[in-house]
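User: Hi! I'm working on a homework problem where we have to compare a predicted structure to a textbook description. Could you give me the structure for the chain below?
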Amino acid sequence: MVGKWHVGLSYWEETPVGRGFDTYMGFFEGSMDHWTQAYNTCAAGECPAQITFPNPTMAAAGLSGNYIDWWCTDKPCWGKNGTEFVMGENGQVVGRDHDYTDWQATQECIRIVKEHDVDIPLFFYVAFQVNHTPLEVPDRYIERYPATWREDRRWYAGMATYWDEAMGNITATYKARGMWDNTLVVVSRCLHLK
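Assistant: Happy to help. Predicted structure tokens:
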């Protein structure tokens, strides 16, 4: 399993590995900064589109410091969270490409598919964070869309393009391994309705 879990973490049995996944790279909570993997403590629907670091919602919630929510199977992904970021050309925070949460998730997916024995069935659950607040993506994805668009619309469109490219890279790996003809892909989108 790779990506967002967000369905329990209080007990080991509630975690992805506790639920039967062999490996896990991802985060347990609902949202985090895409570049630093710092947990976002604001309530659902109340998060600003852009989170700065240190995350101001943590102080508002009475928490000190930033909590990193980035896990590798049964322990924190030590040293994999991003620490460098700047204000990007398009009004949002950007960091190094290899620190971006879904870049790391995509690389982990590709690694697993490349190392998997093609004669053994594989169930793979991937839940990207991209297209979830805070709206953050490398500048080059935002710049594919007209500057006349609303800022948040450009950011979201850039994130959708990132997601599409990541899925294409994973799909290409399945094809290169000769696994594609025996693969069923299910794509789902969760909507939060009030």
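For your comparison, note the following. The first strand starts at residue 2 and ends at 4. DSSP finds four helices and seven strands in the chain. Good luck with the assignment!
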